[in-house]
């Protein structure tokens, strides 16, 4: 099973023996299957809102599941991510994080909507979230900070000329989550190109609008200031 770079790096960020991993917006299920294949996690729940995707994934797991480790388990769910039944007993004081929720391949605004609704009954619980939005990362980070999420790890990965911010977060972690991703700008050539594309995107958004959008302008200014401090 060959994964693209984005999914491969996501799988590499799963470094704990979680009791359960939720692979949300799972599409073909490649990420969850890779996690099961690695053997560290014994159970993955695949979640998608599209019935055809879940039907196809059920068929795939039925045909090829025997190639996975014999002690692994999986379930599939055709449902809204905001309605996941997580472990409601994981208080902040628990040292071990037992569940990981992965949400990948959707826009940052939709992702934030999912998390805002999902976290209503689970606020303050010791649950890890691994996120890979396809756009609107600044707005997502802003919303995550308001939801009291903290940072465990973040990476920047470029795959097929598109760059993605990968965020591993938890409300019980200690490191603050930043709006701009302070840990992303390590690989200078990769991060500089990504930052240039972000600036160009918000410049286009600002010029396309007949009236000034204060939100877009603030984001553009933040990225421009970051570029000046890092690369000018």
Question: Quick one: overall form?
Answer: globular
Give me the count of strands: 8
Tell me the name of the CATH class of the largest domain: Alpha Beta
The CATH architecture designation of the largest domain is 3-Layer(aba) Sandwich
Protein name: tRNA (Adenine(22)-N(1))-methyltransferase TrmK
Pfam family, one: Methyltransf_18
Give a structural overview.
Pfam families: Methyltransf_18. This is tRNA (Adenine(22)-N(1))-methyltransferase TrmK. The protein has 232 residues and is α/β, with parallel strands linked by helices. The chain has 2 domains: 180 residues, Vaccinia Virus protein VP39 (Rossmann fold); 48 residues. The chain contains 7 helices and 8 strands. An 8-stranded mixed sheet has the order 3-2-1-4-5-7-6-8, with helices on both faces. The protein is globular, with a radius of gyration of 18 Å. The N and C termini lie far apart (42 Å). The mean pLDDT is 92.
Summarize the SSE layout with pairings.
Layout: H1 5-12, E1 20-24, H2 30-38, E2 43-48, H3 51-64, E3 73-78, E4 99-104, H4 108-118, E5 128-132, H5 137-146, E6 150-159, E7 162-170, E8 175-176, H6 188-208, H7 214-231
Parallel strand pairs: 1-2, 1-4, 2-3, 4-5
Antiparallel strand pairs: 5-7, 6-7, 6-8
Helix pairs in contact: 1-2, 4-5, 6-7
């Amino acid at each position: 099973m060959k994964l693209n770079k984005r999914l491969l790096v996501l799988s590499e960020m799963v470094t704990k023996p979680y009791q359960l991993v939720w692979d949300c917006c799972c599409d073909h299920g490649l990420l969850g299957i890779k996690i099961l294949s690695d053997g560290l996690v014994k159970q993955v729940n695949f979640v998608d809102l599209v019935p055809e995707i879940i039907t196809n994934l059920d068929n795939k797991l039925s045909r090829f599941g025997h190639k996975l480790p014999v002690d692994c388990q999986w379930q599939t769910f055709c449902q809204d991510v905001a309605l996941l039944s997580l472990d409601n007993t994981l208080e902040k004081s628990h040292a071990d994080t037992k569940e990981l929720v992965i949400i990948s391949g959707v826009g940052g605004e939709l992702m934030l909507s999912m998390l805002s609704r999902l976290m209503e009954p689970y606020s303050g619980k010791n649950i890890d979230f691994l996120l890979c939005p396809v756009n609107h990362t600044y707005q997502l980070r802003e919303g995550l900070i308001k939801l009291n999420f903290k940072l465990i790890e973040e990476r920047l990965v470029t795959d097929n000329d598109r760059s993605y911010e990968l965020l591993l977060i938890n409300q019980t972690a200690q490191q603050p989550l930043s709006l701009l991703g302070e840990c992303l700008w390590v690989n200078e050539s990769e991060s500089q190109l990504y930052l240039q594309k972000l600036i160009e995107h918000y410049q286009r958004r600002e010029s396309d609008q007949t009236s000034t959008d204060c939100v877009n302008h603030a984001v553009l200014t933040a990225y421009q200031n970051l570029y000046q401090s890092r690369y000018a």
